[in-house]
Automatic annotation (TrEMBL):
Principal subcellular localization: nucleus
Organism per entry: Thryothorus ludovicianus
Keywords assigned: Nucleus
Gene Ontology, cellular component aspect: nucleolus
Residue numbers spanned by region Disordered: 14-54, 98-125
Basic and acidic residues bias spans: 106-120
Protein family membership: Belongs to the AROS family.
Protein name stated in the entry: Active regulator of SIRT1
Keyword Cell division belongs to the record: no
Length: 140
């Protein structure tokens, strides 16, 4: 820590009723001369004066700041952009692109679709069954 920071810390810890020594004697800088003292006096802020002046300031309107930070809705522009390009690729091309993007491992491959077999109806008719019954069991 520098000596000036230590001095400031000690000044904060002093009891409030105790009178302070003159500026030059307090810091041991009385022998430096009048030029240094004038410079220090210029730098020391006075509690009554305000350094913030109107000169060089730009007045900001709160309404303008609000409109600048107001969120903009881009929905209409985005919808027009999306609806403008209505080019639909062929199914074969899309399948090829999807196959190229898929990995080569078996876990990345989609399961193969097996065609479901339709339950086949019987080839024989009721008359054929009766005929078979007569021949096999001998029933008239």
């Amino acid at each position: 820590m520098s000596a000036s920071l230590l001095r400031r810390g000690l000044e904060l810890l002093e009891p409030p009723g105790r009178a302070k020594a003159p500026l030059g004697l307090q810091r041991g800088q009385a022998a430096r001369g009048a030029a240094g003292a004038a410079r220090r006096r210029k730098r020391a802020p006075e509690p009554g004066t305000n350094k913030a002046t109107v000169k060089g300031r730009v007045v900001k309107s709160a309404i303008e700041e609000y409109h600048k930070k107001k969120p903009v809705n881009h929905l209409r522009e985005n919808l027009q952009y999306m609806l403008k390009g209505r080019l639909v690729a062929d199914k074969a091309v899309t399948e090829q692109v999807l196959a190229q993007n898929r990995g080569r491992k078996s876990k990345d491959q989609p399961p193969e679709k097996t065609e479901k077999k339709k339950p086949e109806g019987t080839v024989f008719t009721e008359e054929d069954f009766r005929k078979f019954e007569r021949e096999y069991f001998g029933v008239p």
